[in-house]
Amino acid sequence: MVGIDKKRQVLTQDEAFEYGSIVPPIYQTSTFTFANYDSLEDRYSGKSNADIYSRTENPTSRILEDKLAQLEGGEAAAVFGSGMAAISSTVLALVKSGDKVISVQHAYSDAYRLFEVLLKQFNISVEYVDCSDLEALDIALSGAKLLFLESPSSFTFETHDIRAVAQLAKKYKTITLIDNSFATPLYQNPIEHGIDLVVHSLSKYLSGHSDVVAGCTIGSEQLIKKIRDTSLSLLGGKLSAMESSLILRGMRTLELRLKAHSDAADYILTHLEKDHRITQINFPGYSSTIHDSLTGTGGLFSIQLAEGANIKAFCDAMTIFRLGVSWGGYESLMLPVEVAGRIDSGPNAINDFGVHRNTVRLFVGLEGNDLLLQDILSGLEAAFSSDQQQISDLDNVAVNN
Ligand SMILES: *Cc1c(COP(=O)(O)O)cnc(C)c1O
Asked: Half-sphere exposure of 133 toward its Cβ, with a 13 Å CA cutoff?
């Protein structure tokens, strides 16, 4: 088990670099040269592991990869140009035509589209299972090559007993892969519980400043090598040195930021918990089942407004929370299911697994707990004021005409 002291050290401290530099240097270079013929030949014949080309390896990215592997308790890691590049490259390195993949329901929207659109083109079938139903999972896993998990899941934030799920998968020699973006390596370490591979969107909490799109995969030396040797180099979705550096900077404050987001969400939800205008709070701390692999909850949750709520008025009345996808940065963001369910680019997990239309996903940022609570309260006021309802009725008439 990787303790918090060790994690804190990995996040915040480095050996001194060249020139005593306290910050990891950015090796902004595409290629690496070799002093002579023999050293080039040694690299190609596998006698040395010198860097060749930044599509597959780069010293700045490697510092990030080493930290991520240590934080998750994995042997190795690979970083990618997005969380989706990490997910798709990992899945494509492990499956072939004719294979069966099992996925959790309510998987991240684009992971779901990867399964439904791209994998189908290669004759790979994907079956979606409620992973809290271990009996159903036991039946589904027979003959499955890969099990894709996400706990807590997207939009509904359900948690699963990942230890029990990992054990079941081992029985069928099914490789397990979990999207751990919600928890970060600070709040959940799936490898400790028997999961084979962990992916993160580094665009969220780990970079933490809404200025990078990036991802990573962490696991055994053997599986990461397989990904490196095939999909990482051949699909080419590698992360740049510059962005690796931005993530390394963000990680210095990961523990502090997560604590602040968690405190803010707890403060706000304590006040909203008994509000009759909210019929459901989807947040691991507020569900009947929260599994003990998850040791913290952060600032991302969703609320379901009561019948009759004007969701448009709710969103437009709020001034601190801004409308937009993503989360994990400084800024508070919201995304209404009513709109997210409309995206016209293929299968949509929100619609296919059913998320209530009155649900709004909220990400609580660092603007100040009371300011954010007041913002939500003014949204609620607008959502249920009869004036707003009339305005929205007029809008609908205008649209219909
Ligand atoms: C954002 C996100 C992803 C995708 O990551 P990108 O870096 O945007 O490609 C995957 N999983 C979860 C849970 C996410 O929130």
From this structure: 11
